[in-house]
Amino acid sequence: MIKKLLISFITASAIINFWSFLTCRFLFKWIYFVKPDYYNQDMLYGTINWYFWAALNNLLLVMAMTFIYSLIYKYIPGKPFKKGFVFGLSAGFFGFIIPLIRFYLIFDMSSVFFLYAFIDGLIFYVLIGTSISLVYGK
After folding, report:
1. DSSP state, 32?
2. Is 41 helix (H, G, I), strand (E, B) or coil?
3. Is the Cβ–Cβ distance between 91 and 129 less than 8 Å?
4. How does pLDDT run across 30-79, given as a tens digit for each residue?
5. 99-122 pLDDT per residue, tens
6. N or C: which end of the chain has fewer CB within 10 A?
7. How many CA atoms within 13 Å lie on the side-chain side of 84?
8. C-beta neighbour count of 77 within 10 angstroms
9. Residues 113/77, Cβ–Cβ less than 8 Å
10. Helices (H), the chain
11. CA angle 66, 54, 31 (to 5 degrees)
């Protein structure tokens, strides 16, 4: 069981950190320039220090999600991909989407950035869930 946990954790961490690097650093970097989203100065000016903390945060998140998945995977119906999709979508909804909506209501955030973060968050959590389940399910 420990071996499955470790392999699932490493696989999901690699996938999600690649996704974060690709989207935040290259594909959607422009989103941080949409007014009034100037709260992330590190992203705007290209310093890399923010990425270390984001990657560390991703590792801790994936570690927790891998452990939780190992406890509840028997109770999620379906094959590994479906289990991971449901798990990732559920975790994303409760762990990301609800706080994002609260964040949007409290802080000055553009609707373009909110939409990007909403879609990216769903993809982010589904990638974690499905990659964990596909490795753990074998």
Report:
1. G
2. helix
3. yes
4. 777 776 544 555 555 555 566 677 777 778 888 888 888 888 888 888 88
5. 777 676 666 677 788 888 888 888
6. N
7. 23
8. 7
9. no
10. 2-22, 41-45, 49-72, 80-92, 98-106, 111-136
11. 120
